[in-house]
Design goal:
mainly alpha
């Protein structure tokens, strides 16, 4: 899927959320979309999400 098509779908989702749910729904859809984007990039790059969220402070056993 091209980047332009993904942007179009995201814009339409935000537009529908703003129109039908108001500004709070617009912010919620935008925030969840950003979280989904970050997780998708981590998984796509082969990064372990649990290792990413664990931080550097924990030692491996």
């Amino acid at each position: 899927m091209s980047t332009a098509l993904v942007g179009l779908v995201a814009g339409m989702a935000l537009g529908f959320a703003a129109w039908f749910g108001g500004f709070g729904a617009f912010l919620l859809v935008g925030a969840l979309g950003a979280v989904g984007f970050v997780v998708g990039r981590l998984v796509g790059d082969g990064t372990d999400v649990r290792g990413f969220l664990g931080g550097r402070g924990r030692g491996r056993r």
